[in-house]
Fold:
Amino acid sequence: MGALSHIRVLDLSRVLAGPWCAQNLADLGADVIKVERPGAGDDTRHWGPPFAKDANGADTKESAYFICINRNKRSITVDISKPDGQEIIRQLTKDSDVVIENYKVGDLAKYGLDYESLKKVKKDLIYCSITGFGQNGPYAQRPGYDFIVQGMGGFMSVTGEADDVPGASPQKAGVAIADIFTGMYASTAILAAVIHRDRTGDGQYIDMALLDTQIAVMANVSSAYLCSDQVPQRWGNASPIIVPYQTFPTADGWMIVGVGNDGQFKHFVTAGGQAHLANHPDYCTNPLRVEHRKVLVPLLEVMTRKKTKAEWIALLEAVSVPCGPINNFKEVFENEQVLARGVQIDVPHPTAGTMRLVASPMRLSETPVEVRLAPPTLGQHTDEILRERLQLDEAGIAALHAKGIV
Structure:
């Protein structure tokens, strides 16, 4: 029994932030019903290749993007533009605890599926809206895209090589971090709302915005600006306040070295046969190394190129200097620690046969996360949910199919 096995979630969201939030709740045991458009479904179902392959190596219709954010959910198709479809959503809301949606501000009101409407059928409803810019303010009506929010929220201004590096430019993250973090914050907010409801009997409305989240997760960078009024700059893979704390080339690839104190610096350069650098008057303390980084770092790069990545990591781990490789994803999933932790899991799937997924990182001793369901095919559970939650008979279900409602 998962920690949230008593919670029912109606997931009206699409693409990434909302589905990521709902998947977190599903992993913790919640019964999550994913509502999708008949015939098309979530946009991410079509975002490929790559697609999962079946037992014969042929592509299925299950995109890698959709797969990563929709496990442990049941899929129902409902046309919410039609009154009968809207009524299905209202009936599902009656015995749900949480509704999650990421429509544009005001869009669901015209269908009678906004918070004010649905709380009339479920007075203690917890309703979470996820948008690009929130429910108020001059940008509220704008569509929210992760890439744009990474730029607007300051992330790209501090990501990428420094301005004095040839070809330098602002860079986005390799994954949609504004979406992912908004989904994580939304999960936390929903859990807090569930606890509040259990204590008081009151539901509530949750307003999540990608831009708010992006600024919040800038953490010490945002704080540095607010404390100093100095605009943070791009430093590439280097740290503005610690040297050396960056990537270094080796004889066969790249590694990360994170020297956090003067003792670690001494061990680093000694391992590379350059012990004299530890006592050099320009490099013996971190403030001095920061001041003279433009001279020091090229010297260290000459040193690191003389050994392989594996040789360096073995040497530095032996003297407790923080370091690590930059793995591609083949190396990630072959890593001994990753294998020991069971990060990759295999689950049965109706079209792919066996589907490889990334396990949830949440490890709970008493209520462990369990993958109960593979990411669903489009509308896989429609009839099941209509029978179970709306108590419809076969004739009633057939009528909804015939009218194109589901």
The two ends are 31 Å apart (CA to CA). The chain has 16 helices and 13 strands.
